[in-house]
Amino acid sequence: MDDTLPYLMRGLRHVSTDSSVLVSSSKYLNNPKLRDWVATNMLRRSGQDRPPTADTYELHLIMKEIQDRDHVDALFEQERQRNPQLDAWLSERFMSKLTVQDVKACAPDTLGGTFHREVIEKGYSIEIMPPLPEPPKSHLDYYMMRNGQTHDFEHILTGGGLDFIGELVPYYARLVNVFKHLSPELAGELSVFNILGAMRIMSRGMLHYPQTWPAIVDAMERGIAVGRASDPIFMLKCEDALHLPLDVARERLGIRDARFVDTSAETAIYLEQV
Q: How far out from the chain centre does Cα 148 lie?
C-alpha cells in the first residue's frame, strides 16, 4: 500500500478500457442526455426563461430511452403473482375520463371542489400528459399514465402545495410508499424519475436559495410521513371520491398523516419572482 495516498483514497483502482467514449457500469451515467440533464438541472439557478415543468418533461423522455421496459413489465408480472391488489389494479386498467365540468359541479369543500379551485382556476391543465385513446398494454406505460392523471390530486391529498417546493411532498410520498407496497427491485425502477426530479429542487435550493432550505426539508419530511402511513398511492382512484369532503376523501382513499403547509412564498424566492 502506498502510504503517501490520503486515507480516503486508498483502495481506489483505475480501470482500463479500449472504448473511445465514456463508458461505465451505470446505464444512467452512460446516457449523454441524462448526464446533461443532471448537470444542468442540479446546478443551475431557476429563472423565468425555463419553467420547472420543462425539466420534468425532458426527464420523462430521457427515461423512456434508458429504462428496459420489458424488464420492468416482467417485474410487474412477478409482483402481481404475490400481490392481489396490484393484480386487480393492472387487470382493470382504469383510465380517467375526468372533465372540468365534473369537478366544477363539486361543492367547494370536497376533493373535486378543491381540485377545481387549486388547479383549474389557477390555470393548470387537467391533463398533464396528452390523453390516450385506450389503456396502454405495457404495465410501465400504464403506471406512468395514471401517475400523470393523479399527480395534481396527490398534491392536494398529501398536503403539498401546487408550487415548486410543494412538489417535494408527493415526490417523497411516492418514494417511500412504493417501497412499502412493492418489492425493492420494482419499486426502485418506478422511483428513478421521482428521485431525480426531487433532487433538482433540493440541490438548487441549497446552492442558490438557502433561505428556502427549511421549507424544503419540511416538505420532504411531510411527504415521507404520508408515504409511510398510507395505502398504495399509485393506485389512487380519486375519481370515486370527488364528491367527498377532503378529510373524508383522504380516509376513503387511504391517505394518512397529510398536513398542508403553504410554501408559495419560498417558491417565489426560488423561482426568482421577487
A: 10
Length of the chain: 274
CA atoms of 200 and 219, how far apart (whole Å):
14
Does residue 116 contact residue 52 with C-beta atoms inside 8 Å?
no
User: What φ, ψ does residue 96 adopt, rounded to 5°?
Assistant: -75, 140
Q: Give the residue among 26, 135, 137, 134 at the shortest CA–CA distance from 73.
A: 137
Cα–Cα distances in angstroms (integers) from residue 222 to residues 60, 77, 231, in the given order: 25, 32, 16
pTM for this prediction: 0.91
Query: Do 86 and 142 touch, CB atoms closer than 8 A?
Result: no
Locate 175 and state its grid cell.
Answer: 418514494
Q: Which residue has 439557478 as its cell numbers?
A: 45
Q: CB–CB of 179/168 below 8 Å?
A: no
Of 149, 190, 148, 140, the C-alpha closest to 57 is 148
**Predicted confidence (pLDDT) per residue in 17-63, tens digit:** 888 888 899 999 999 999 999 999 999 999 888 888 899 999 999 99
DSSP state at residue 116 = I
Report which DSSP code applies to 210: G
Which of 12-16, 19-23, 130-134, 145-149 has maximum average pLDDT? 145-149
